[in-house]
Amino acid sequence: MNMVFRQKTVGRESSQNAGTPGDPVDQVNAMPDEAFIKEYLPLLPCEWRHPVSEASYAISLVQAASLTEAQLNRCFAIIDQTSGQDYRSSLQGWHPSAKKQEMRSPDLRYILVRRGEEICGFVSLMPTWENGEAVVYCYEIHLTDEVKGTGLGSQLMGYLTEVAERAEGIEKVMLTCFVRNERARRFYERLGFGVDAQSPRERRLRGKLLVADYVIMSRRVKRRGRKPAADDDE
Predict the structure, then answer these.
(1) What Gene3D superfamilies does the record tag this protein with (predicted)?
(2) What is the pTM of this model?
């Protein structure tokens, strides 16, 4: 599943709340993994079972800084395997060193799906600021062939939505998708994502029509108040 990448836009400096004591993004990102799971993903399972093979896979959440070098390299290899051609064909190109550096961004968290020690899929997310709005940005979501078409992709995206719904002040979930990846775009549309106002539009320059090779998509949070954590008092 070659789905998504992060296209940097205006970023957190575009909000007057960024870096202030009440900054909801800083509050979320400051949490260690255990507290993050308890507060925002209390129902995150430890195991996922393949619906066809019935093989068991471990699910875990880890901050980028805690990824081992082997885990980072495996995630990078999956990106290259599933989306490398899209990157190489894009205007931004494929830059392995820069991509690995991005993958170590301090506020990134990964939800890993592993069969034994082998990572078979992952999603990476970061609460951040985009044009004055606090969002959960999906940096990457990639699945290997053995877990494609199983519903796992929808499940992983559901965790991002859950974080956004539970975190006070978060307005939406955002992601970036290559235009040529029509299958991925249809997948996101089925999950309720639409083209975001920040997504680049067609424009003319010196008589030529310029069309971006990526689209920014988003889904607004349905604010329903904070859901009780698994061990909250009734």
Answers:
(1) 3.40.630.30
(2) 0.87
